[in-house]
Write a structure and sequence with these properties.
46% of the residues lie in helices and 15% in strands. The protein is an alpha/beta fold and 241 residues long. The longest helix has 28 residues, at 94-121. The chain is globular, with a radius of gyration of 17 Å.
């Protein structure tokens, strides 16, 4: 799967799965437009893979639209930006809800909309992959808003696939298990919590960011040209048992 001559916009490209996607796509020939709120991450990506960086706080809808306009028309979009605020059901706050839903869901939908508008104006075609989570399928302690945001993004992915399909734009999602990133470390660093979770995976391990990126590249590629509206678990079999 090569992407020479193609351009991909990646949100949350500075860290974790987003950065793994940036490295992989650049390694396969794509021009990477990296969106991140951390300038040092953008600078290091530019030095490492030649990515064009756009600093943006995706919690701000107007700034998100402006960043997508600055990114311009691209062939692919990977919505990787995401946060979590660990709060129980009884302790959920409005601030936590707004932060998680604002970035994980609202910003992703804005990016999809702006990407699609540019693609339609250019004659159609292209592909989107949204990153969701197995937390949208199973209930995890203190993940109320996170689960709601990821389940919502999966529902939106199906609507996007239906409405954008006539324009030749494919839209899919991946639902990773716990992936060894900075965000996961905060939530799963306690062995008492992580070990019972790990043994529920038939492959008996969590995912690496590079493995999720490889699945995303597959869905973007022409090898998946008949796949749209799908949610691909990248979970070592977790949801199968």
């Amino acid at each position: 799967m090569q992407f020479s001559g193609k351009t991909v916009i990646i949100t949350g490209a500075g860290k974790g799965i987003g950065r793994a996607c940036a490295r992989l796509m650049a390694g396969r020939g794509a021009e990477v437009v990296a969106l991140s709120r951390t300038q040092s991450d953008l600078d290091s990506l530019a030095a490492e893979i030649g990515a064009r960086g756009i600093r943006v706080d995706l919690a701000d809808p107007a700034a998100t639209r402006a960043a997508m306009a600055q990114a311009g028309t691209a062939d692919y979009l990977i919505n990787s930006a995401g946060i979590n605020v660990l709060e129980s059901v009884l302790d959920m706050t409005e601030a936590g809800y707004e932060a998680v839903l604002g970035i994980n869901l609202r910003a992703a939908l804005i990016c999809c909309q702006e990407f699609a508008r540019a693609r339609v104006a250019a004659g159609g075609g292209g592909a989107i992959v949204n990153i969701t989570s197995i937390a949208g399928h199973r209930g995890f302690q203190d993940h109320l808003c996170y689960a709601a945001s990821k389940a919502g993004l999966e529902g939106a992915t199906r609507v996007l696939a239906k409405e954008l399909g006539p324009h030749g734009i494919r839209v899919n999602a991946v639902a990773p298990t716990i992936t060894l990133t900075e965000l996961a470390a905060e939530a799963w660093s306690d062995p008492a919590k992580s070990q019972p979770m790990m043994v529920r995976h038939p492959l008996n391990r969590f995912a690496e960011a590079e493995e999720v990126a490889q699945s995303i590249a597959l869905l973007l590629s022409d090898d998946s040209r008949m796949v749209s509206g799908a949610v691909l678990p990248v979970d070592g079999g977790f949801l199968a048992v």
